[in-house]
Amino acid sequence: MQDPTPAAPKPEILAAFEAAKGFMPLHEGLALYEAALEAGRLGLPLLEVGTYCGRSTILLADAARAAGVTAITVDHHRGSEEQQPGWEYHDPATVDPEIGRMDTLPTFRRTLHKAGLEDQVVAMVGRSPQIAAFWRTPLGLVFIDGGHTDEHASGDYEGWAPHVAEGGLLLIHDVFPDPADEFTGQAPYRVYLRALESGAFTEVSATDSLRVLRRTGAGI
Ligand SMILES: C[S@@+](CC[C@H](N)C(=O)[O-])C[C@H]1O[C@@H](n2cnc3c(N)ncnc32)[C@H](O)[C@@H]1O
Q1: SS3 sequence, 98-167?
Q2: Atom of ligand 1 at shortest distance to CA of 174?
Q3: How many domains does the chain have?
Q4: pLDDT value of residue 180
Q5: Is the distance from the beta carbon of residue 135 to the nearest atom of ligand 1 less than 6 Å?
Q6: pLDDT in the model for residue 179
């Protein structure tokens, strides 16, 4: 059961979150934090797909610290489609000038260091399905915030949702039921519908585009 008055992150954690480069608004971040605190009670690691520069990782890691578990974050650090040069969400500062490709890993590491959360986080650098293919550990929470194509969003769901433990939480970001609200497509919305239709997950809460589901049955 969720607490009537959820714990808020300390001011210095909130300041680090606000200062970090990234895409998660504060009110969705607080919903992520609350879910992560609750899921942490299972005593299992909490995993995020889509690190980018570490903005959401800060809140996941702070909740993991409170629960005494590890936060894991997965990203190839080369950016999603919509973050590439010429696209809406491109930030030229994320390009490695030597190789001319995005590399968000150095910024992520600085973000985490400044937030004092390096010891709470294991960062896995690589393609999400490739890492998921050898993953065997049950997870208290999976937060899907990776690529927005159907291939990537489905790959994240199929790769990581099976590892959400009974009673654990599956979070999906950028769920937009109205296509007019979303520039990068509705693949996360389709994954959210698929999770509900599977009968394995039940909706707990919705905060703007962030959906929190709980595993209440087997499968995906
Ligand atoms: C929307 S950003 C994540 C935003 C971040 N959670 C935040 O709070 O700012 C999506 C990230 O997913 C990563 N990504 C996209 N597809 C991926 C894949 N197949 N495997 C690993 N990472 C991927 C991109 O490199 C990008 O950094």
Answers
A1: CCCEECCHHHHHHHHHHCCCHHHEEEEECCHHHHHCCCCCCEEEEEECCCCCHHHHHHHHHHHHHHEEEE
A2: 1
A3: 1
A4: 83
A5: no
A6: 84
d(CA 180, CA 87): 18
CA dihedral sign, ordered 37, 42, 43, 49:
negative
Question: Looking at the domain assignment, is residue 1 inside a domain?
Answer: no
Ligand 1 neighbour 22 (Cβ under 6 A): yes
Q: What is the C-alpha separation between 128 and 152, in angstroms, rounded? A: 8
Question: Does residue 21 fall inside a structural domain?
Answer: yes
3 in a structural domain: no
Is residue 67 assigned to a domain?
yes
Q: The CATH number of the domain where 203 resides is what? A: 3.40.50.150
CB 148 within 8 A of CB 80: yes
Known catalytic residue at 148 = yes
Q: Could you tell me the residue range of the domain that residue 187 belongs to?
A: 11-215
47 is written with which tokens?
């995993």
For position 88, what pLDDT does the model report? 85
How far, in Å, is the centroid of ligand 1 from the Cα of 52?
5
- Of 27, 76, 113, 148, which is the active-site residue? 148
Within the chain, which residues score under 70 in pLDDT?
A: 1-6
